[in-house]
## 1
Amino acid sequence: MNVEVEGEKPMSKKTMIGADLLVDTLIDEGVDTIFGYPGGAVLPIYDALYRSEASFQHILSRHEQGSIFAAEGYARVTGKPAVVIATSGPGATNLVTGITDAMMDSLPVVIFTGQVGNKVIGTDAFQEADVMGITTPITKYNYQVKRLEDLPRIVKEAFHIATTGRPGPVVVDIPKDISEEEVTDEYSTEFFLPGYQPNVRPNPLQITKLADALEKAKKPVLLAGAGIVFARATAELKKFVEKHEIPVVTTLQGLGSFPGTHPLSLGMAGMHGTYAANMAIYESDLLMNIGSRFDDRLTGSLEHFAPNAIVAHIDIDPAEIGKNIPTKIPVVSDAKTALEALLDKTIDKPACADWREKVSEYQTDYPLWYERSDELISPQWMLEKIYKETEGKAIVTTDVGQHQMWTAQFYTFDQPNRWVTSGGLGSMGFGFPSAIGAQLGSPDDLVISVVGDGGFQMNLQELSILQERRLPVKVFIVNNEALGMVRQWQERFYDERYSVSLMTINPDFVKLAESYDVRGVRVDSEDEFEDVLKDVLAYDGPVVVDCRVVKLENVYPMVAPGTGNHQMIGVTKE
Ligand SMILES: Cc1ncc(C[n+]2csc(CCOP(=O)(O)OP(=O)(O)O)c2C)c(N)n1
Ligand SMILES: [Mg+2]
């Protein structure tokens, strides 16, 4: 690792140990960035990194949760696997939320945890935690290395499993004695996983059924999910959609899989989706889902979801098909190969000009709306301004809450791999560290992190990384002095009983940023905001902008829990 030390780097270690083998295997995998935090059980690994001649960049977070969220941001924008190292016990358990998050959102992250020595496993040794037990339900796969000769093969398998099929996190738990053991032989990295053979080619019969259904459809809708981005199938999707002129709605994670500014795009569907997107699904007679898992925030009440549609579902993960929604045309496949197969087929274009007109009228008649404030900043207006000023070209990460939904609604993505948010798990604390990973993964891009005043405080210690690396991330705190999304639900469904959701005490975010040698700015009005925005975007370094927004603003439209998407509330100003 390129560690800067005064004078000669003390290198004298002749024998090769397990930790060196791990580092060599990482080099072989093309790893150049590691997110991590050291501790006793991973000392041999950190020593091997120190001694290595390879130029790894190691990003030292200030909390392991920061490491794994940053790794997710990195994986999301690069499409490459991200690597995390943490020590045994508390190091490993501090990763649990992030691993679960990566699992829910299908992100390829390979996590190396130190473990106590093999001989003391099960004795409640110092900093022992049952990492296998804890991570079994939250990983795509997990390993504990029992013999040194298995280590390089396991590492190879871990990367293979994390990145192929439906991506996901893989944990490799390495007992300290394995990291320290002397390497005496050359160990094979060959592997064969008969039980893991993701099906990437669609069944031709199912493609024919889908083609037939499309020809006959009068009201087709294509639901585009993140699977399209993972499969790098956005060009194929656009071609297919334009060929047949099918209206497209996206999921939250699917934003950017199809250009949001395209005339056939109806925007995001689901709990805070657009009226046009939700009504198009509700009224459709053919719903083609590509790479989305029909989660409950998307579907609303299942009984009212696409009640008249033939459902076709293309997914690399067979377990997703039919899980929530009865599916007439199941296609187990990678999104790209399935779209290629569909593009290769001669399909009569569905006769649905009336339908396109109808859904486009929904768009013009029921656009997203908000009221401007003449005092504080309207959050939606602020996000629209950020969108316009950055010409929609920024990589945007968010935390979880109202600001997340406003960003999804008002920042339009035309490109994939530029939208980084915690969807499945909805983990507060994700937004800021994931921006760090995104910036490292895409150093030449403008990275904007939109966070809530609540969520930012869950991982603000990572400001240290901005300080240390001068990463030019621009953090916009949508400061409503509240756990806004909680407050909104309390306003609507709990008779305004604001139980613990009003954050009357917040730190001075400007001083806080400055204490990390990061520029801090506070903005209180829309008048100031435009100039500040230009100035902040032109600034060549990290900035935290404390934006004082309307405190009681709500996210609309909204599908109330237990209702159908067609029963959305707040579609127009009440
Ligand atoms: C780790 C975690 N704890 C609790 C929640 C529940 N939760 C969802 S949104 C939210 C409020 C977030 O407040 P803030 O970060 O200020 O964002 P805002 O909604 O105000 O934009 C809470 C507490 C969560 N999603 N994640
Ligand atoms: Mg808030």
## 2
Amino acid sequence: MSPRRSTVDAAVVGAGLAGLITARELRRAGRSVLVLEARDRVGGRLLNADIGDGKVVEVGGQWAGPTQARVLALARELRIDTFPTHTDGENLIEWRSRLVRYRGPLPRINAAVLLDVGQAQARIDRMARRVPLDAPWLAPKAELWDGQTVESWLRHNVATAGARDLFRIAVEAVWAADAADVSLLHLLFYTHSAGGFDDLIGTDGGAQQDRFVGGSQLLALRLADELGDAVALEEPVRRIEHSDSGVRLVTDEREVSAGAAVVAIPPALCGRIVYDPPLPAIRDQLTQRMPQGTVIKCMAVYERPFWREAGLSGQAMSSHGPVKVMFDNSPPDGTPGVLLGFLEGRQARVLGEWEPDARRRAVVECFRRLFGPEAASPLDYVERVWAQEEWTRGCYGCYMPPGGWVSYGRALRAPVGHIHWAGAETATVWNGYMDGAIQSGERAAAQVLDAMS
Ligand SMILES: Cc1cc2nc3c(=O)[nH]c(=O)nc-3n(C[C@H](O)[C@H](O)[C@H](O)COP(=O)(O)OP(=O)(O)OC[C@H]3O[C@@H](n4cnc5c(N)ncnc54)[C@H](O)[C@@H]3O)c2cc1C
């Protein structure tokens, strides 16, 4: 069968938030556009899961923070309400086999450890502010900072073992990678792009403050509704041919000719498309150096959020794991009760190889240790192993290991002829988040329009 042929002003690869925003901006500017999406659904790393009675939880991205202006504005425009993450009550930390209740952002485990954490965090924030958001490789100490992992920095600069362990948990929670995987310069860039370290890890006032009524995937679903048949599902882009006159995108069923392409997928996946002629070496090698993190998002569903009755917020940390970070993820009306736990980095790699039943038992057992016997018998259990998803291959997103920014960073957003790059990983503000994905789509659309004018 001969392929379908389409001709548009611009073709977009990927119907995640970045691709959908790119398409919307181009359409608003009067350009014809076609979004080619590999999956049979839109939203990419945003995905609602039904838990009955019309309620949903998100197995992908879900939270928005107060400084994430773009995603909050988009939600308002699409008439999607937000509600606060449940934080009333005391938090828990399981620390070296002791279970401690605490209020506020930091657990009262040991005064020396807390002092150490505070000093290290202040240092990170100071260094982060010196990293230019559009060119991290131009930071005054870029070579030094990109030449070491976060783990090496912790070992040399954080005195107490307890503070180092707390930071390791925070790094796993934010990047779904181990401190030994991530370049210090990447941590500093990412921290600056969010505002500060507290903005990344915080619930009240931070990135985990609010949730979307009806689930975050609604953002993508409503954008796709607006775009109508400009979004084609189950059409993975296999090949992009490009020349001075434009681009041709090849899927299994279609060939799309366009003046420009915007590839709105994670860098690690950009490297799996065939380009003809091949991309410049620096761009290709960039895609070889930005791995995805590893995360399994796990939720246990209970008749009611019983921990609230015991004065607990549902927010918890464990040095023992395998779930190290937990939240109350119940719907806005608190019914049913949902406990959310993340398996991240090494834990996600190890438990990702287990049978689903064994993994569920390990996660639920962890909830039981922290929240008591009632947590042992959930009515339902929902999880998503993102590293096993063909069209994502890990999460929350791609990060830079040492050397990445300094040697390859300049290829991250630079167009190659008529091929442009979008996606949360290309953002300068809230890099890696929904907010950043939106910024990247706006920027890529502006680049294309500029080149076409
Ligand atoms: C478990 C988890 C928790 C998270 N938590 C949060 C959070 O609380 N708050 C927050 O802001 N962010 C969070 N994130 C990150 C957030 O989800 C992402 O930053 C954002 O959704 C990325 O959007 P995107 O459009 O850049 O990429 P994606 O959503 O990855 O979209 C890319 C799209 O391209 C498609 N695709 C891939 N390859 C091809 C191809 N060859 N041809 C055609 N289509 C292709 C994919 O199927 C996908 O639909 C989380 C992510 C995960 C997984």
## 3
Amino acid sequence: MTEFQLTKHPHRRFNPLTGEWVLVSPHRTERPWQGQVEETRREEEPVYDPHCYLCPGNARAGGVRNPEYTGTFVFENDFAALRPDTPDGRLQEGELIVAESERGICRVVCFAPRHDLTIARMSVHEIRQVVDTWVGQYQELGALPFINWIQVFENRGALMGASNPHPHGQIWAEEEVPNEPGKEAHSQSAYQVENRSCLLCDYLELELRSRERFVCDNDSFIALVPFWAVWPFEIMVMSKRHMTGLDDLSDVERTSLAGILKQVTSRYDNLFQVSFPYTMGFHQRPTDGEAHPEWHLHAHFYPPLLRSASVRKFMVGYEMLAMPQRDITAEMAAQRLRDAGQ
Ligand SMILES: [Zn+2]
Ligand SMILES: [Zn+2]
Ligand SMILES: [Zn+2]
């Protein structure tokens, strides 16, 4: 009987943040690929695009004109998924048909006036302005009595369905904590009650000891491929110090966050020599006025690429019906990202 090895044998890994499992099949990494190949285009974007609805001075759908902004620029999404003026209401038929009204505010954050930039190409100083904007928005929206959850995120690249290459992200603020952070909230609080410590602080300590899944770090932040990663090159960015939200960042830590975001996105771009697509976003405490010491500020990067700029991972079949599955292990992915330098 051969001994079980994570590097060789199929196994499932537990995600303590969501309480879910991922199937890992390291023996399959050598299988030939005959699936879909994405078209790779390395078109250079212009500094200014007269047809871009995010560029300074341009008109957006509905006729509103953007100001000639020079740093970041925030506006209410012209096609918002949530609206603050939604009437309060509820529909229920027995236990099986349930609907609740949901109020919220959706904003767009332009990271920079230049159409051709990405976080990887921006200076730390420029990214720092984006961090400051995120903090300001978290505070401003979080202070509204009906806003209890703020989702800061970026969808980067056409592969992720981003409709516009102009560097921008979104902020959706709403009444209820959505599904994914809801699972994490539940796990972090159960862990806190049982162990009298923070789940991610304890996880961070384990990772700093092994360094197998370490990607890069600076004084205040660490980037690693979590043990339970689902996407091939998934990364989690965590604050080294326990803090519950972006508004806990000191001046120096805000610049550190800008620095680690540049490091991570530069490594991604280097990996397959392409402007790497991803969805990234922050998880932090709800803005319901409670302290939430169980929440530890972190960001998730979920990139879809698998083995090159043109081969992506699909979440289909078994993954839609049963659970996520990956071939390349988190440790192999971390090694590749460490080698990708910056
Ligand atoms: Zn633009
Ligand atoms: Zn913590
Ligand atoms: Zn999270």
## 4
Amino acid sequence: MAGSHLSVPGGPELTRHQIERATALRTDQDWLAKAWDDPATRVLVVEDGQVLARIGDGVAELIFVAPGQAPEGDSFLLGVDSSDVAYFGVGGPLGAAEGGTPSSGAGLQGEVAVRRAGLREAGTLLSDRDAGLLTHAVALANWHAVAGFCSRCGAPTRPEMAGHSRRCTSDGSEHFPRCDPAVIMLVTDPDDRCLLARNAQWPKGRVSVLAGFVEPGESAEQAVAREVREETGVIVSAVRYSASQPWPMPHSLMLGFRADAVTTQIDVDAEEIEEAGWYSRDDLRNALVEGDLLMPPSLSISRWLIETWYGAALPGPCRSAAGGVGRAG
Ligand SMILES: [Zn+2]
């Protein structure tokens, strides 16, 4: 049913990337030292999940500094591009990035400003390369910010593996970046209607697919069935994986699924979910055109899941409210 001018995105937004992660170089101390001495090396400064970006009309690019301009802080290797330019991230004050250079300096039109931005604002505006670098850098910076002490004994930890792990200075235990798996699922009934729900914290009219965190000792498929039942009373079968998307806000990996409803009666939990309903494609299109419903922003995998079911890009604004799910959203 896709019109000729519409297309479903090829993949979730935050899975775009272009830089080789160069994992073998993370333990190559000579190479790392040389790269850090090279003024051509680009460093992305991250503070509280934000970076400096040059933002124009619907386009943005990251601001990088040379290693000599980077602030003191935990640095981490992000990768190497096809011209052998090395990219690092460092957690520190963004003031240090003022006077840095934009990634290309070209392609931005209209009013352009350099300002702080995070993934939610800049994620969809950046090039594939910059979007991948920002997602990787924010995820690692978020982890380093809370991983300074050993979770076993409380002693300080130090970065290793070019910032991709940390080791306790007392008991020698190794600690890796934390990533919480969350499931997000598009459920359809036998009439191919899709289940959409409104989180109790969202404004009226804002709906999305269901989501929640995977519990210890649980498979992702089990989490899908449990969350759908808990939140809406609907029982599902044929839970199948669609795609995933990093969601480092602060440290999740969103695992996208489809599932078939075995029962269709809705009984919302009234705590997390305020209301839920079945929508045909026509229902959804009409509600969006009338402005009665607000969809998740294009940054989130929820919108991608809905669009793969809908069969085209959704009508209406796509960069509306804040995206994704909250804790066990
Ligand atoms: Zn320890």
